[in-house]
Predict the 3D structure of the following.
Amino acid sequence: MSSKNTKPVLLFDVNETLLDMTPLKIAINTLLEEPMAFKIWFGMVLHHSLVDNCINQYHDFSMIAVAMLKMTATSLNKTITEEETKKTLSEIRKLKAYPDVLKGLQLLKENGFRLATLTNSPENALKEQLINSNLTDIFELALSIDTLKKYKPNAETYIWAATKLDQQPQDIIMIAAHGWDLAGAMNAGLLTAFVAREGQSLYSLSDGPTYEAKDIYQMALILIERYQ
């Protein structure tokens, strides 16, 4: 582990960790007339991104999102049009940051931490998301697996990010609201920090995170205290 006086690089997941996905959840649940539709859809998106990893092919996250919304509709015996699909999923590019995010990230920067993202979203979508959430100037690097074409939680993605940041994996903290993401980061040798967003939980069959907080601002206070 890094010494107390050496600050690790902080690597952030984006969707649900920094950005509030509530508008997308409402749009999908409304379209499919099912309160669990978003959870079904998002689970299928993650599942089939890993299918791409396993069979050595790649479709960007946006393509998988479209295909899975159609599959989710089929599983719920609903019929949706191309226009409805496009309109509904366009919400993901317009997401706003949680209220705690900007304050927490700015505090971390002021205290000398390097900040970067690592997301499964494609580069063009990530760029739009950061602009729309006023986070563009916060991050040193906005990394998307779209460059590598391997989805998290594949170990290659985290090691690639470490290389881009010119760091050893053990000198990076992966910060995310998803247990599967943190399990992947741990497997690649990174430290981890769990943001306990509403409805999110850790993967109970994996080791626990290095740090845990209710939001980004509280996480900032914990990390500043730890590495001051």
Q: What stands out?
A: The chain is about 45% helix and 10% strand.
